[in-house]
Every structure is written in C-alpha cells, then in structure tokens.
Amino acid sequence: MRNNLFTTSARWGRLSYRKNGEFPGTAIILIHGAIGDSRLFRYQLKYFGDRYKTIAIDLPGHGHSRTGDEPCMDDFITAIEDLRDEEGISSCVLIGHSMGGGVCLEACSRGMPGLKGMVLVSTSPVLPVSPGLVDIIERDDMDALAKLIVSTVFSKGVDVLLGFAKQALNGINREVIKVDIEICKRMDYSRALATIDVPVLVVSNRFDRVIACDATALLHQGIPSSRHIVFNEAGHIPFFENARSFNAAVDSFLEEMGICQ
Question: pTM for this structure?
Fold first, then answer.
C-alpha cells in the first residue's frame, strides 16, 4: 500500500495519507482509530477509489504523519482541514472507525463546511477504555498490548496478525499511544447527537468485544437522520475483516444520499 502514500507539510507538522481516485464531486475521507493508521483501509481505497476520490489519512503522530508535540483533538481536526486544502476537497463524507468516529463527531460539532454525511464504525457516544488496557500501557508492555489487540480487535487471533501488530506497535511513539487513550477517555458526544443534521450510517458487529453493539446503537438512537447496520460477526474492524459487506452497505448509503458515482 505504500505506492499511493502522499506526504505534504501541514500547520502542525508532516501530513501523510493514502489516496486512490481523482474524481470531481464529493470525496470520501477515512479516519482510523486509536493506535491505528491508514493501512487498515486498504480494501476501501481500492473499492471506492474506482468512483470517488478516496483518502485514508494518517492522523498526527500516526503512520507516517509526524508532529513536533504530542497530538491532540485540535490537531486531528486541523489535519483533516489541511488534507482538504491540499486535495482541493470542497465536500466530503467522513468514515471514522472507533476513535476515528469520535473525530468525525467532533468535526461535525465544529461545523465542518461541506460535510455531506458520516459513516460511524464500531464506535459510540462515549468510548469505553478498559482498566486492563490502561495498565498494559502504563507498564509499557508492547507484547501484551499486541496480544490484547489481536485477541479483541480481530475475530480470529492468528500468529501472523500478532507479528504484524508487534511490528506496527514498535513504530508508534509510546506517548502517542497514551495520548490516544486519553483522548478516548475524554470523548463524550451524548449531548451533541440530537444536533447532527447530516445523514449518518452507523455500523457495528454484533459480537464486538471492544465496543459493544448496544453502545454503538446509542448513536443511531440519538442521531435523527441515521440508520444502523449490524453484521452478525465478531471483531472490531468490520471494514477490514468483512470488507465486501461493509463496502456494499456504504454504497447503498451513498446512493440514498444521492451522491452515488
């Protein structure tokens, strides 16, 4: 996936993102979750990039994006704004996973111009952070963190995933991991849901062990113009492990919005 990696200067540091497709009209911007990066959206870049300008961003401090200070939510929002300026994007649909869903809600609450809709994946108005995760991070035990990620985030814990997880964690600044967790702990968009006035698709797996399906359903219950799709699957990343069904659901959503290309 490195062949479509783009890097540019931003107000807060170095911005990197992966892009596929050079189409006019509404763009799709994909926002990863905590301790993640743009690589997780490989199937969406390939699929939607045939018809839309499709971009997966590395949030500040993640992937190949670098910042001189510890990133914060303001930096995340600024990164999306800088990306839109760089790519000349006047209208977009945001697709956010887990913490990235919170970033989408924050962007919406700040009145991001040209926001046509959102897809909120495996997330909730208040993000749960387990004490066990906090303990592992405080102990700086990256092996234990890799095992926890593979056993809870993916539906099947296999050795090859464990190897990839360890490799990815070795490339992340430890302070950024702590920042991600602190950002998640502070997220609470319960009161903002009723004010959302763009179409929203909420997606979850029924047996998600990171953010319970019932917690994700609270988004649908609170957002007036939303609908909720539940896959009868485990795992925390439906767009990666169940890409075909996920992409089809988003396709239908975009068609309902009238921006199908």
Answer: 0.93
